[in-house]
Protein 1
Amino acid sequence: MSLLTFEPRPATPPRFKHPATPRALVPAVVAHRGSSAQLPEHTLAAYETAITDGAHGLEADVRLTRDGHLVCVHDRRVDRTSNGRGAVSELDLATLSTLDFGSWHGRERARQQQEPPRSAAPQQLLTLERLLELVCSASRPVSLAVETKHPTRWSGLVERELAHQLARFGLLRGRDGQLSQVRVMSFSSVALRRARALMPALALVQLTTRPSLLAPSGTSVWGPSIDVLRRHPELVGQAQARGRAVHVWTVDTRSDLELSRDLGVDAVITNRPAFALDALGGSVAA
Ligand code: G3P
Ligand code: CA
């Protein structure tokens, strides 16, 4: 890989970068809930835009509906991001599919920018299945970090259904014996242990808001919040010295992007992939 150009990240998770790696490398850019600063989070439009923006990877939260479908929704309830009400786990796919997951975003952006209220275009619920179709049909390799949200009444059924869906798409392993282009992320170490048992060829990401490197064995990526990184920058090198890649979230400002780059993190998870790519420049740390 050239060090002078910004090349797409390979479909495999990052190789582990030792702290002594030259700083000419920059983190891979992962679109958090799609290009979600610009478009409603977790919608097909947000992910399509992220790919067009040049993101190396996509991040999505998944939850199980009452009738066992994995859908891309962050909150336990749909109230914030749709015109409906209720917990995802208590609604069925048919009901969720009637809701508008787009219009709220216009109002939210107007509020943030202190402008008069406006509506964004209506958007449909995004299923994991549709997101996997998008990833598999992309014109270049794009990684996908799937976060299983816990606690939920469905507990281990979430990882089981994720394994089922990935198997359907041939994503339980990568090409030529490499790791899959899909990673599983969770704050729950129990969920990561389940994922390791069900999907052994997937990289696992331990998410945390604490300055701790604790993670189940087999976890190859440490996923701290940017706040942890700001307060404990030394943990980046410590994680990498233990053979873990570092994927930090949510990195939206120039100063945080530069901090992440200077610390040598492997991937930044951002709501603003186009801005992040522009701000980081250089080649990808892979
Ligand atoms: O990518 C990790 C990050 O998404 C975890 O936090 O609340 O945005 O899912 P949250
Ligand atoms: Ca997430």
Note: The CA atoms of residues 116 and 276 lie 28 Å apart.
Protein 2
Amino acid sequence: MTERIPIASDHAGFELKERLRTVLCDLGFDVDDIGTHGTASTDYADYAHPLAQQVSDGKVQRGVLLCGTGLGMSYTANRYPGVRAAVAWSPEVAELARKHNDANVLVLPARFLSDEDGIAILQRWLDTAFEGGRHEGRVAKIERDDQSSESADDASAGVSA
Ligand code: RB5
């Protein structure tokens, strides 16, 4: 079955999003373009929320976000359970984000990338699998099922807050 993959950006990521949408279509993905659809000023969170919700709900396996720095999109997406949104500024970072962190949302800092950089980063992220092994438990520890504020020091000392 064709994998559906959502992509979204604000105005700062719009042009690179258009390029990446074409690349994803050419690769055979069923691309869900959430917007934005032009260069008018927009708010990144309006696009990150619907994409992250789909990933968090398991409706899609992965998604792609773009804004100027990648930061606003990643802050927003990472508030959703099960979402691991990684800002990647090189293919090497994208590869490690998959291998070690099982990143299921790729976030691109569009104002700091050429189209060629963006395509290379996307390609590497798509092509790289999670390594599992020692990284499995570390990734599992990201999720919290409560809002307690137990610190790493408290945990290692066996003290519960
Ligand atoms: C838009 O000017 C810019 O602030 C936004 O794209 C992003 O970089 C925020 O994190």
Note: Residues 4-157 form a domain with the Ribose 5-phosphate Isomerase B; Chain: A, fold (CATH 3.40.1400.10).
